[in-house]
Specification:
- InterPro entries: PAP2/HPO, PAP2/HPO_sf.
- This is Phosphatidic acid phosphatase type 2/haloperoxidase domain-containing protein.
- GO terms for molecular function: hydrolase activity.
- Keywords: Hydrolase, Membrane, Signal, Transmembrane, Transmembrane helix.
- By secondary structure, this protein is an all-alpha fold.
- The chain has a domain of about 130 residues.
- Helix content is about 75%, strand content about 0%.
- Helix 3 packs antiparallel against helix 4.
- The longest helix is centred in the C-terminal third of the chain and has 32 residues.
- It is globular and about 55 Å long.
- The termini are far apart.
């Protein structure tokens, strides 16, 4: 029993939970630089939309964080969990789409979602969110990620390939939206720290 107590104790400072927003942002930046195509622009646009949805839900639900939380803003849903699970869901679905179902994807897909669950659980262990807030963030982020992935492959990709107007709208709209959101978030994150 004493061996299991380390699982319940909050991790020591500094913690990966403190830098998870930078980790997710860095992964998206790396993916954008690496892929440099319309699909990654679509995924980035979805990430921005997912983040904005989290802000709207926080204001609508106005659910308090746990009592000892250091922050006073609403905690439902966890925007960290929502962003992390959006990214993990899109990545896992993309792996299955690109590589098919094989041993590699059967390991990497669940491993990606497990890492997302661990990073989200750190928010609970740090007392920044309740388990329900993280679970709602995970469900919403996963649902948005799956929907955004399906929209690309069933609707947008074909329209993008066949219409110059759709190409211009997706590329310029995604670029402008993403750059302005990145500037806003960096200013917001630096202000918080």
């Amino acid at each position: 029993m004493p061996c299991l107590l380390f699982l319940l104790a909050p991790p020591p400072r500094p913690c990966l939970a403190d830098s998870s927003k930078w980790l997710v942002a860095g992964c998206f930046a790396f993916a954008a630089i690496w892929k440099r195509d319309a699909e990654i622009m679509w995924v980035l646009l979805g990430a921005v939309g997912n983040s904005l949805l989290s802000l709207v839900l926080k204001k609508m639900l106005n659910h308090e964080r746990p009592a000892p939380a250091l922050r006073s803003d609403p905690g439902m849903p966890s925007s960290h969990a929502q962003s992390i699970f959006y990214a993990a869901t899109v990545l896992a679905l993309s792996l299955y789409y690109w590589l098919g179902t094989n041993y590699l994807t059967m390991i990497l897909g669940p491993a990606t979602l497990s890492l997302a669950a661990y990073l989200s659980w750190l928010r609970v262990s740090r007392g920044l969110h309740t388990l329900n807030q993280v679970m709602v963030g995970a469900v919403v982020g996963s649902a948005v990620g799956a929907l955004w992935f399906v929209l690309w492959h069933w609707l947008v990709q074909e329209a993008f390939a066949s219409s110059v107007l759709v190409r211009v709208a997706v590329i310029l709209g995604s670029s402008a939206f993403c750059v302005s959101f990145v500037v806003y978030m960096i200013r917001h994150w630096l202000k918080d720290e």
